[in-house]
Design brief:
By secondary structure, this protein is α/β, with parallel strands linked by helices. It is 36% helix and 30% strand. Keywords: Phosphoprotein. This is Two component transcriptional regulator, LytTR family.
Length: 255
Amino acid sequence: MTKPRALIVDDEPLARERLQRLLQRQNTVELAGECGDGPDALATIERERPDIVFLDVQMPGCSGLDVANQLPATARPAIIFVTAHERFAVEAFAARAVDYLLKPFDEERLHQAVERALELLQSRQAREVETRLESILAQVQPRVPERIAVRVDGRIVFVKPREVVWIEAANNYCVLHLTDAPRLMLRESLGSVEQRLGAANFARISRSAVVRSDQIKELESANYGEYVVVLLNGTRLPLSRYRRNELERALTEAR
């Protein structure tokens, strides 16, 4: 596993050397470099993209607080302030610091600060993965159309998916049972209509019936292990035993 990369920023060479020695002893991060002033730190952060920055507060020309406040909101490293002065703590945490190390600090206190930074980095990575997965799923999931055009008796009728309660196969035709309109019979296969309406909102319950998932009221047990799908409008439709597990899974995911 790749170690997080850390940058040390302090205008005192001895302080940088001591911190580097302690970090090497702990062996939890990889050193990305060191800087002696604020402008160099900003340039190095932009170039090296470290995961963690140990940042001194008081430095000539550009303080550590100035550096932290100039960093972008996104792709921002975890900031651990390192200073001999307590009075900057409020400003440091206002600059979204992970921790505030008071000099002189011991190895255990440094370990605590590094652990806090690692926890922040892990939570960021988890959020990034979740965001990427959501983006991928949004691209691959079937798009639900606002409405579809169906040809009925020489006319073209526009039907919204939410108006369809269930669809019934009838030989070479299928029948759309709607919420507030007469049923429509069209010369099209059940599978074709199901696909056009958006399969994410509909569930196949048998070879001859597809229902809109949010119109299902309950599954009622019948004889010999058979089940009946009861819709909100009272319609009762037989459920194929081969479709039961698939339907229950679809209903669970839709909640």
